Amino acid sequence: MASFLRPHNWVPGPVGEELQVPDKDAKAMVGTEDTPGGKASPNPQNLRPSVFHSIKFFVFCHSLLQLAQLMMSGYLKSSISTVEKRFGLSSQTSGLLAAFNEVGNTALIVFVSYFGSRVHRPRLIGCGAILVTLAGVLMTVPHFISEPYRYDHTSPDMPQDFKASLCLLSTKAPASASSNSSCSSYTEVRHLAVVGIMFTAQTLLGVGGVPIQPFGISYIDDFAHNSNSPLYLGILFAVTMMGPGMSYGLGSLMLRLYVDIDRMPEGGINLTSKDPRWVGAWWLGFLISAGAVALAAIPYFFFPKEMPKEKQELRFRRKGLAVSDPPVSKGEDSSSEQSPAESLEKKDNLAQMAPDLTVIQFIKVFPRVLLRTLRHPIFLLVVLSQVCMSSTAAGMATFLPKFLERQFSITASYANLLIGCLTIPLAIVGIVVGGILVKRLRLGPMHCGSLCLLGALCCLILSTPLFFMGCSSHQIAGISHQPGTQPGLELFPGCMESCSCPSDDFNPVCDSSTRVEYITPCHAGCTSRVVQEVPDKSQVFYTNCSCVAGGGPVPAGSCDSACSHLVLPFMILISLGAALASVTHTPSFMLILRGVKKEDKTLAVGIQFMLMRVLAWMPSPVIHGSAIDTTCVYWAQSCGRRAVCRYYDHDLLRNRFIGLQFFFKIGSLACFALILAILRQQDKEERTKATIPNPGLQQQLLASEAKKEPEESRVLQKRKWFRKDKQLDKDYTK
């Protein structure tokens, strides 16, 4: 991606001219044009080297900025189930919300190659970071404009309202009436406003991230020493890859805190993080990450538009082996100078044409070059395989925490901790291992294709046991385990028919002796409530339950999963599969770089990333969310509309979620198999051409040899005559 986003020929004047400027003059020039004050020092010799003229300091600042930016981008995925519960969203809507930041990013990323050579890159990076900060702050606005969270349809200021969840024989559906009275046009408008604000914030987050990585990479590559640039970019990517892991770690910490920690009700809450109604402080993570991005953005407004190119190579090897590159003289850089013939051959290279084109011309040229690149079979198959892999990663990153919560009855905090400590680090290790294998073994296209096929096959094999690592849903009184059906009062046990329980309330209790869960204490026939105080928390029990053997007591909260002990083996297999899939990352890039024409490499990598966004990172969360919604067996209702799902069919959820992942992995494996087959066919054709000479070429060679023989005989005859004449002259002289 660095090569695609690198602006070409941005240096004014002849090639290499800026390398001939003496250090002091260069510093004086930079200080005149690009210092924050815009004024030059009266005596350039008194200028001291500024830290903002150091490419090393830029690499340090950019690593921190990209780390903070990716931490914010990934934070929503770590708290997706919490946002669903807080605002009553379906998985399809939350998946669309998580993918919406790709919309603004994809719409503008193509124009980076056009504007890259015409703007002040550090300042534009800083402006993008400020926009990312505003997006993070905007994501927290729904928390502050919404009413305090009420987890059981009761008012915190009226403790006696907890009786609404009990079986009261003399009262008929009090909670239902109060719930209906709370539904108004203002409530619906506020809900739409909250959802609209979050979608707007996600769009701004994508737009703000457009200049950060492309301009940062091109700036480093332009002003770093040629031998140091790969090292700097490697450091940048290594630090950046820790961002997603830190986002899940931050989510793990924030979701342990109650959502209304800034406005806790008097007397506290009788709720634990294991309760299905628990909502963590999802908004606090956005404020923290937004603050980190804002701090990292400050230095970019002090970096110059251009700085003297780094002239010293970093030496980490032994002294006898460290050899610095010779200085580049004027006109020596042949890679930047092109003959007229070469320029005609590269006339379709959009990245090189971009600085000379207007916006309208750029838009007209892009589709033609795009179609020409997509006609390359290796490129197309590699992109399709990476689209499948990215679809798997996008679905996992968005909904794996929620899947773990539902399937194994663990808290959102613990689910994020497992992903941040296991899956993300092993995926990073897989990327590094893939790069090391390509470099150390010097793998060619054939072996890169074999490595990709092997990694995809092993990943698919490790995914197979996941279908069986889970258990069925426990029994829930009154709910049929058929997706799409709603419970009716006629399905509830007869023991609570006289209670007139509200159908829209949710305050689950569990009969641990029979592993039967009731939606509310009222549905269990409970008429009283007891709070047992224990150190650091309080436990709520319900007694006198007519539907429970012995009358209770029954604890508040859902029943624990019978297979919660399988969560660690499940995560180990998921993480190993992610590592093996990540091994294919670098070899697949090499297949593109070595498979397309030299003049198309930059654009090919850019098109690859664009297609991955459009075909994978944007639709995949929505597809996974829609698949999860089809497994819901009980939807909560809010003002007559379907809100968050309360219960899922666990077997159906596991089969469809893992099955969707399995489908994408099979697609990736099939693409890599076709790539390997094409490479073998091409290699076989090349060997055939090398071993079997062309008859036409043989005739041309024979004809040329026949022409050469008379010429050689004439030359030999002339030499003989010359020798005879020379001998006659000697004899005459004597």
UniProtKB/TrEMBL annotation:
InterPro entries, sorted: Kazal_dom, MFS_trans_sf, OATP
Keywords: Cell membrane, Disulfide bond, Ion transport, Membrane, Transmembrane, Transmembrane helix, Transport
UniProt KW Membrane keyword: yes
Name this protein carries in UniProt: Solute carrier organic anion transporter family member
Transmembrane portions of the chain: 96-117, 124-145, 189-210, 231-259, 279-303, 378-400, 412-438, 450-470, 566-593, 614-637, 657-679
Coiled coil: none
Keyword Membrane applies: yes
Primary location recorded for the protein, binned into one broad class: membrane
Subcellular location per the Swiss-Prot or TrEMBL entry: Cell membrane
Classification via SUPFAM superfamilies: MFS general substrate transporter (SSF103473)
Region described as Disordered: spans on this chain: 322-345
Gene3D superfamilies on file: MFS general substrate transporter like domains
Recorded family membership: Belongs to the organo anion transporter (TC 2.A.60) family.
Highest taxon of source: Eukaryota
Domain Kazal-like residues, every copy: 489-549
Membrane topology: Multi-pass membrane protein
